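Contributing new complexes? Match this layout with 2-oxoglutaric acid.
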Amino acid sequence: MAKNVLLKKEFDYFQNKGFLIKREFLKKEEIEKITNTMKKDPNFKSLFNKKVDLNKDKHLFSKNLERKILLWNDPGDDILGITSRLEKVVGAMEQLLVDEVYHYHSKITDVPFGRSGWSWHQDYGYWYHNGCLFPDMGSLFIPLEPCLVENGCMQIISESHKLGRIDHFKPEENDLTIHQERLEYILKNMERVDCELNVGDVLFFHSNSLHSSNTNTSGKTRLALLCCYNTKHNNPVREHHHPRYKKITKMHNDSIMSFNVNIFKKESDFVKNRTSTPLK
Ligand SMILES: O=C(O)CCC(=O)C(=O)O
Ligand SMILES: [Fe+2]
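Output block (do not edit by hand):
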C-alpha cells in the first residue's frame, strides 16, 4: 500500500461523514487536458450523445430521461484510465478504505439542462447485488467542469454511510432509489450537503453514502469523471459485469501532463448492459 496521501484529520472526517471534499487535488491544466482530449474526440461525442432504445440497451450511452452516462471496466492507458490510476488517487482511496484497492469501473456522467439527475441512492445499493459482500468500496467524483447547484452538482447526506445498506427499488423508466417514506425521514433528520466543486477539486465518497444530483437549471453542461474502486479483501464472490480483483498499475502523479495520452476509448471498451442475475 502507498504511503499516506491524506492527513489524519481528512481520514477521520471521511470515516465520520462518509465523504471528503479535497480542494485542488488535481491541477486545472490536468483537467483541461482531459476535457479537451475528450471533447475533440469524435468517438466521445457520438457515443455520449447517442440515443438508445431504452428497452434494449439500458445502461450504456443512456441518453436516459434524466441523465447521461458512459461506463467502462478496464481503466486502460488513455487519459481517463491514467487519471483513475494516479498514485495519489489510488493511494488516497487505499487509505480511506484501509486496504489495497482495484479499479471496479469508471464513468463519465452529465446532467442535461432541465433534468434532475440521479435519484437518491447508495452505490452499494447496486454493488451489493454483484457479489461484493462488504460495502468496503468507494468512488471519486472528478468534475471536468465546475459542478455547482445550478448545473446539477452532487448532493450527499452526511453520515448516511452509518445507516448501513438501505433497500432500493427501481421505478419504471428511472434508476434505483430508496423508498420515499424513509427518504423523507432521512432528509428531515440528517444534513444534506451540496458538493459544489471547482475544476481541480474532487469528492471521495463511501459506497453506502446516500447521494443524488441537483437539477440542472443552468443551460450549461455538467461533465464529471467518476472512478469507482473495490478493496482486495472484498473480491466479488461471483463473476458479473464489473471485474473481480486485478492489481492496479499505478501511474506517477505527473502522468496526465507528461504522457502522450491523446487516445479515447473505443465503443467496445464500454459496458453495454448490466444484466447479470442479482445475488439474492
Ligand atoms: O454524476 C452524478 O451526479 C452522480 C452519478 C452517480 O451517482 C452514479 O453514477 O452512481
Ligand atoms: Fe451513485
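Reviewers usually confirm one structural detail per submission. For this one: Residues 118, 121, 123, 211 surround fe (ii) ion (ligand 2) (CB under 6 Å).
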